[in-house]
Amino acid sequence: MKIAVCLKRVPDTDMRFAVAADGKSLDLSGLKFDMSDFDGYAVEVALRLNEQQGPGEVTVVGLGPDAVQETLRKALSMGADRGVHLAAAEVPFDGLAIAQALAAELAGQGYDLILFGRVATDTGNGMVGPMTAELLQLPCVTAISHLDIKDGRGTAHRELEGARETVSFPLPAVLTIDEGIARPRLPSLKGIMAAKKKPVESRPAALGPIRLTVDKLELPPERAGGRIVGEGPDAVPELVRLLREEAKVI
Amino acid sequence: MAFAGVDFYQLDTLLSEEERAVRDTVRAWVDEHLMPIIGDCYVEGKFPKQLIPGLAELGMFGANLPEEYGCAGLNNVAYGLIMQELERGDSGIRSFASVQGGLVMYPIYAFGSEEQKKHWLPRLAAGKEIGCFGLTEPDFGSNPGGMITTAKETKEGWILNGTKMWITNGSQATVSVIWAKTGEIKDAKSIRGFIVPTNTKGYAAKDQKGKLSLRASDTSEIHLEDVHLPKDAILPKSGGLKSPLMCLTQARYGISWGAIGAAMACYDEAVTYAKTRVMFDKPIGATQIQQVRLADMLTEITKAQFITLQLGRLKDAGTMTPQQVSLAKRNNVSMACDCAREARRLLGANGILAEYHSMRHMANLESVYTYEGTHDMHSLILGQEITGLAAF
Questions:
Q1: Nearest CA of chain A to the CA of B29: how many Å?
Q2: Which residue, of A209, B130, B310, B358, has the fewest CB within 10 Å?
Q3: Selected residues 54-113 of chain B with any CB under 8 Å from a CB in chain A
Q4: Of B18, B44, B372, B385, which one is the catalytic site residue?
């Protein structure tokens, strides 16, 4: 199958974050960057599909500054075949602008599947996948936790609160991938060396108009320290009272 | 939480994208597969055999040897970073990979025939064969040229006799690179290397019991009693003591990197503990004595990182000398021993538990300090380099 996986380069979520001097963006100094977590699952799904179903091609597509190529090469070192870098000075917050650039790249290329992570771990909008599907006029299933492909049709599971939904759809389709579907493999050392020889094309991103802007970014307030209300069974009534009346959690 | 490494001077900016990618892969592998089990392995005195396929699949054995023999073809800095990350987990696991790559695959690559290389290297890279390196003997450690293991040439091939000791991977190895004298017992020039499948009649390995260090690593004694080998068991390009010493230079190079990994693990543990352990109503990290400990560790780790990265660049350029390796091995392992001991002390009583890592590293590093050329021998190698006068 011919599969495209759209990747986003995001700050590593293990890092400590600070707001930049402009008050509306992250202070990038000292941050490490990596592929967005859910995108890693999407790459793994694509690689496994082609490993199980015979030869195919996995193309990874990333939008942003040149550093995005490093994230694309990580996917190539995991086993993807080629990369496409859609160059832009920065990744806009406006998902539709991004979706327009991706749709322009992906349209008419004969992809059987176009995969996204369920949501980017930095902006957390979850918009770009469904919007790209809309622009390409393709069926879209979001946040899937299981996937089967057979005879040109797919079946996907979606985990709902206390229930599971099974959705079937024709190919080509756009899917956004939830965690837990297939643990992303580590790039092997040979894979890292092989990735250097795999093609990465770079061209300007045909971004749509950017109509959304972030005006302010604030970190949550520091959490206050805990309080010890007493010790042993004698403290229970007071604890229950506080949980009920003050914290209002029971 | 994932291990973030120690990089006070932005050394990452001196690494290539591939070098960082290799480091990050091994780091993630160690977090995921080694850290959850290493404490138990150490206490039980068991090498975690189950990790061998995973190590092989990622390509960690002989990773700096060429792709045509099934290896990853990495440069020596990337190879060093693998050793660093493995030893961040445990010196025993790094030792396993060092022996397989630097002491078994390297001599077959450097001194073997094309047939030997084609036969053995892909199998060793894939972890289908496990190797060990037989140089040290009960009475010949720092003086390997004095060895008394012999290889007598016959019409059919060779007959080996002798005893080797302190052999890492000895009991689980399927193939052994054995060094023996083919001429007079005083003639160190007659030392040659042999590839010995460990199921050959007359070959026996026995675990060395009672180790208080490198407990998650196999260490064995090997007995060779009239071990008959075919003619083509000899490594044709090996000749004299220089050949095994070239192997040791490879392994010592990896140890220089590995020691930094162990030191980083201890520093990282000490920093976390110092910030969270409260005594006298404040974190112990707010006390001057612990801050001095941490400042010393960070300083020494940073210095070692610079020495070792440049050593790697020299190795990649083909201009590294064995004496430069001696300086890095001597400095870095001694530095790591100090960091481990100070971290253990900072951890107070908790520091003696296997749940924490510093004391395990501290005990392991005493072996690393002693093997592959003791700290003292490397002092003398440097002394000889400086003065032109041998003191050994």
A1: 8
A2: A209
A3: 57-60, 63, 67, 72-74, 78, 82
A4: B372
Residue in A with minimal Cα distance to B33: A186
Question: Residue B1: is its pLDDT beyond 80?
Answer: no
Q: Answer whether B58 sits within 8 Å of A188, measured CB to CB.
A: yes
E strand spans, B83-185: 131-134, 150-153, 157-168, 175-181
Please name the member of B2, B57, B82 whose beta carbon is closest to the beta carbon of A14.
B2
Q: What is the pLDDT of residue A214?
A: 92
A193 touching B (Cβ < 8 Å): yes
B114 is catalytic: no
CATH number 2.40.110.10 is the correct assignment for the domain at B131-233: yes
Q: Which residues of A touch B74 (CB under 8 A)?
A: 189, 193
Distance CA A181, CA A40 (A): 11
| CATH architecture for the domain at B11-125 | Orthogonal Bundle (1.10)
Chain B CB contacts of A189 under 8 Å are 22, 25, 58-60, 63, 72, 74, 78, 82
Judge whether residue A115 has pLDDT over 80: yes
Band the pLDDT of A220: cuts 50, 70, 90. Answer: confident
Residue ranges per structural domain of chain B: 11-125, 131-233, 242-387
User: What pLDDT score does A107 carry?
Assistant: 96
The class of domain A2-204 in CATH terms is: alpha beta
B271 pLDDT tier (thresholds 50, 70, 90): very high
**Is B308 a residue whose pLDDT tops 80?**
yes
Q: Which residues of A touch B17 (CB under 8 A)?
A: 70, 73
Task: Name B91's Cβ contacts closer than 8 Å, sequence gap at least 6.
Answer: B214, B217, B258, B262, B361, B364, B365, B367, B368
CA–CA distance, B247 with B112 (Å, rounded to integer): 13
Q: What is the mean pLDDT of residues B297-314?
A: 98
Per-residue pLDDT at B243 = 96
Distant-in-sequence, close-in-space partners of A83: CB < 8 Å, separation ≥ 6 = A59, A60, A61, A62, A69, A72, A73, A75, A76, A198, A199, A200, A201
Q: Does B4 touch chain A (CB under 8 A)?
A: yes
Give pLDDT tens digits for B312-329.
999 999 999 999 999 999
